[in-house]
Amino acid sequence: MARLRPLLYDYYARMSTTFSAGGITLENIASHRISEDILLSHLVFKCLVKIGVWLWSKLGKCTGEELSVNFNWVLPLFSNGFVEFLTFFTSSRNYHRTH
User: Among 63, 33, 48, 57, which residue's Cα sits nearest to residue 1?
Assistant: First the structure.
């Protein structure tokens, strides 16, 4: 699983740039490509979160370097994911207020 985590995380990071703040406009919201990117990113993120939650539950049994490596992977996953969600949600709310 340790080899799978960075692959999924890198894939999610690349895909999520498609719909980051300012990436979705009225002109491209109906695009098949945008909806596929969002769907695939969502599925990959769900996998990452499930891995993160599973790993978080195992942290109490880890020691030494294994604990450090796993904790340092889990923490940014949840921190960055939450920040991305808030950024997208805030930009969406601001857009709807101005239009």
Answer: 48
Total-model pTM = 0.65
For the chain, what is the total number of helices (H) and then of strands (E)? 3, 0
pLDDT, tens digit, for every residue of 5-64?
Answer: 888 888 888 887 776 666 777 777 788 888 888 888 889 988 988 988 888 888 888 888
Q: CA 81, CA 39: separation in Å to the nearest integer?
A: 16
The answer to whether the beta carbons of residues 28 and 34 sit under 8 Å apart is yes
Sign of the dihedral through C-alpha 16, 22, 24, 28: negative
* Euclidean distance between CA atoms 30 and 86, whole angstroms: 22
